Amino acid sequence: MPPANLPPPLPGKKRRIGVLTSGGDAPGMNGAVRAVVRMAIHNGCEAFAIYEGYDGLVKGGDMIKEMRWEDVRGFLSEGGTLIGTARCMEFMERAGRTKAAKNMILNGIDALVVCGGDGSLTGADKFRSEWPELLQDLVDTKELTADQIVPFKHLNIVGLVGSIDNDLSMTDATIGCYTSLTRICEAVDSVDTTASSHQRAFVVEVMGRHCGWLALMAGVATGADFIFIPENPPDSDWEEQMCRTIKKHRAKGKRKTIVIVAEGAIDENNNKIPCGMVKDILSKKAGLDTRITTLGHVQRGGTPCAYDRMLSTLQGVEAVKAVIEATPETPSPVICIVENKIVRRSLVEAVAQTQEVAKAIGEKDFNTAMKLRDAEFTEYYKAYRITTAAEQPDLLLPESKRLRIAIIHVGAPAGGMNAASRAAVAYMLARGHTPIALHNGFPGLIRHHSDEPLGAVREISWLDAEGWASKGGSEIGTNRGLPSEDIETVSNVFGKYNIQGLFVIGGFEAFTAVSELRKAREHYKSFKIPMVVLPATISNNVPGTEYSIGSDTCLNALIQYCDACRQSASASRRRVFVIETQGGESGYIATVAGLSIGALAVYSPECGISLKMLDHDIDHLRDVFRKDKGQNRAGKLILVNEKASKTYTVQIIADMIAEAGKGKFESRHGVPGHFQQGTTPSPQDRVRAVRFGVKSIQHIEEFAGLCKDEIEDDPASASVIGIKGAKVLFSPMENIEKKETDWHRRRPKNEFWMELKEIVDTLSGRPGYPAGI
Ligand code: ATP
Question: What cellular-component terms does GO give this entry (predicted)?
Answer without folding.
Answer: 6-phosphofructokinase complex; mitochondrial outer membrane
